[in-house]
């Protein structure tokens, strides 16, 4: 773990100047300051934007192969610098070694995926003629990078999200300004250095450290914004983007349910539950935050979960494997978790394990906590927790579980545990969430061929799959007609013989055969009548 302090985002030669103000970065597990980062105000962000715009055409001109080469080099660079990255990630998040390894796995996967697939997803698309008016036309749509993309990231996975979302934007040919969370601005600076060493042209990938105002300044200067964070901030970013009429992709909060059916492998279900709720101390957008268990297996499931949670080791992570659960990022976040537990207990819930912040330590930790006798009047079942809580509710059957799982304003992810995979898939179709796993959780983020995003207040747009890179591009539709004949049927001058035929063709094409037969005489009769009326 880092003990020395690190300074982030020291502007490179010729880089935009930030203000004199600096943000102190503290290790949540030890309470010690580990570094600082500059604050970019609106003027400094505008300078970054100018540099990014100047650099982007050259980056786009490198083509898919040229860009893929840089991304593949970066994949190797990150593998070679894994120790440095793990150390800094652990220090700025206060999490355990294993959580940081999981974090590192994502960009390593994503660099290869987008290097390999960007061209395939963005190659021109042919369209078939859908009307006689476009017969003999060549119809193609093309994807062109927007130009300058703003990526705004939260603190819970500083590299996976901040850099991970930048990768498809870069692979598409955009320049990027990344605004990391003010709480975790250090690891991303290592990434910037790596990209530079791997041949990324100066100005293509830039970092604007700072708080919310810096994020707002980024939205003000970019051509498209990709935001990940809370639903509350996502609404502000969406509104600001709407004012500027730029596209926004929003990956927001969640309250992911797990449904445990009576036929489940209960040992896997309990392990999934404990891991799903406590990995990264529960601070994952895909954390499992509430549990609905069929009556027949409820007692057995709860007793297995209680045993496993009681066995978790928590504390300052000093080495790989030393503890299972790390710190909570901020004092405010610790208070959110504790307030939810207090609210649940006041309304009749029972705490079976944990239930309070860890006392007598310098860092911030919350005991992994199992709550039973919970219901939807309690905040722990309705509001995002972002902490190691397992509120477990007994349900009569799968229908009640699905109803309760859908009783939420969120719709990010969900898990169903059952031995009957077909039934699991059928129930998945009834859950209002962007991603659903059967007998699994979290691994969706490694399925880069599948779209991943939220519904309801969990977001707009998706990561991954073809849509995960096309969103960083404007679509251009090009129609190429032959240069002959000299005039088409609908050109001027209007002609009394041809116009009725045009109507016959239009109605005949979309109507029935008898309508075709009627159309021509009726059209001719209408034309004659109109001519009489007009006195011609
Ligand atoms: P926040 O919404 O508080 O912040 C996210 C980012 O937005 C930060 O960089 C923040 O800066 C910045 N920001 C704050 N205000 C503005 C503004 N007005 N304009 C532009 N940017 C702004 O989220 P957290 O960092 O607390 O992250 C936790 C949240 O992220 C949870 O709700 C979690 O569910 C969600 N999340 C969603 C994921 C998904 O894929 N759906 C993945 C991971 C997390 P600063 O922090 O410096 O103030």
Describe the structure.
The chain has three domains: 6-252 and 467-475, Aldehyde Dehydrogenase, Chain A, domain 1 (3-Layer(aba) Sandwich); 256-453, 3-Layer(aba) Sandwich (Aldehyde Dehydrogenase, Chain A, domain 2), CATH 3.40.309; 485-534, no CATH class. It contains 17 helices and 19 strands. It has helices at residues 42-61, 63-80, 82-93, 97-122, 158-171, 187-197, 212-221, 231-244, 266-278, 295-310, 331-346, 379-382, 398-405, 421-428, 467-470, 498-510, 513-533, and strands at residues 6-7, 22-26, 33-38, 125-126, 138-145, 148-152, 175-179, 205-207, 224-228, 248-251, 256-260, 288-294, 350-353, 369-372, 389-395, 413-417, 435-438, 459-460, 473-480. It has a seven-stranded mixed β-sheet with strand order 13-14-15-12-11-16-17, with helices on both faces. It has a six-stranded mixed β-sheet with strand order 8-7-6-9-10-18, with helices on both faces. Strand 11, helix 9 (266-278) and strand 12 form a beta-alpha-beta unit. Helix 2 crosses helix 6 (187-197) and helix 4 packs parallel to helix 5. The N and C termini lie far apart (93 Å). Bound molecules: NADPH dihydro-nicotinamide-adenine-dinucleotide phosphate. NADPH dihydro-nicotinamide-adenine-dinucleotide phosphate is lined by residues 152-156, 161, 179, 181-183, 211-212, 215-216, 219, 228-230, 233, 236-237, 251-254, 285, 384, 386, 412, 454, 459.
């Amino acid at each position: 773990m880092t003990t020395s302090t690190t300074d982030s985002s020291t502007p490179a030669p010729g880089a935009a100047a930030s203000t004199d103000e600096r943000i102190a970065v503290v290790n949540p597990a030890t309470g010690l300051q580990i570094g600082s980062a500059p604050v970019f105000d609106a003027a400094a962000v505008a300078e970054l934007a100018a540099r990014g715009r100047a650099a982007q055409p050259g980056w786009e001109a490198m083509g898919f192969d040229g860009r893929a080469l840089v991304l593949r080099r970066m994949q190797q660079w990150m593998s070679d610098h894994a120790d440095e990255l793990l150390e800094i990630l652990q220090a700025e998040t206060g999490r355990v070694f294993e959580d940081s390894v999981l974090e590192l796995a994502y960009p390593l996967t994503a660099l290869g995926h987008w290097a390999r697939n960007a061209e395939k997803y963005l190659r021109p698309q042919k369209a078939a003629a859908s009307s006689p008016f476009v017969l003999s036309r060549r119809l193609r749509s093309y994807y062109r990078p927007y130009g300058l993309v703003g990526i705004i990231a939260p603190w819970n996975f500083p590299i996976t999200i901040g850099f991970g979302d930048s990768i498809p934007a870069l692979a598409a040919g955009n320049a990027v300004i990344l605004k990391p969370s003010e709480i975790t601005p250090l690891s991303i600076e290592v990434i910037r250095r790596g990209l530079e060493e791997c041949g990324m042209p100066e100005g293509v990938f830039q970092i604007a450290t700072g708080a919310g105002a810096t994020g707002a300044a980024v939205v003000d200067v970019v051509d498209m914004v990709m935001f990940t964070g809370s639903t509350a901030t996502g609404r502000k970013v969406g509104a600001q983007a709407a004012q500027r009429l730029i596209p926004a992709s929003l990956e927001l909060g969640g309250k992911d349910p797990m449904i445990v059916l009576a036929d489940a492998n209960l040992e896997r279900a309990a392990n999934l539950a404990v891991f799903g709720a406590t990995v990264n101390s529960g601070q994952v957008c895909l954390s499992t935050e509430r549990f609905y268990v069929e009556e027949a297996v409820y007692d057995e499931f709860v007793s297995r979960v209680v045993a496993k949670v009681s066995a978790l080791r928590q504390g300052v992570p000093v080495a790989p494997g030393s503890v299972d659960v790390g710190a909570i990022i901020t004092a405010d976040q610790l208070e959110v978790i504790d307030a939810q537990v207090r609210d649940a207990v006041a309304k009749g819930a029972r705490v079976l394990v944990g239930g309070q912040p860890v006392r007598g330590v310098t860092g911030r930790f919350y005991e992994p906590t199992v709550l039973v006798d919970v219901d939807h009047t309690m905040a722990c079942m309705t509001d995002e927790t972002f902490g190691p809580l397992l509120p477990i509710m007994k349900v009569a059957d799968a229908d009640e579980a699905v109803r309760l799982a859908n009783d939420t304003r969120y719709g990010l992810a969900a898990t169903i545990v059952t031995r009957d995979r077909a039934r699991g898939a059928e129930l998945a179709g009834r859950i209002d969430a962007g991603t659903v796993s059967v007998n699994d959780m979290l691994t969706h983020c490694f399925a880069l061929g599948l779209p991943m995003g939220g519904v309801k207040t969990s977001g707009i747009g998706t990561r991954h799959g073809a849509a995960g890179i096309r969103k960083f591009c404007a679509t251009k539709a090009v129609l190429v007609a032959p240069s002959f004949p000299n005039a088409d049927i609908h050109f001027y001058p209007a002609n009394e013989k041809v116009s009725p035929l045009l109507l016959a063709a239009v109605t005949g094409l979309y109507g029935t055969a008898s309508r075709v037969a009627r159309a021509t005489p009726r059209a001719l009769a209408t034309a004659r009548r109109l001519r009489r009326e007009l006195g011609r």
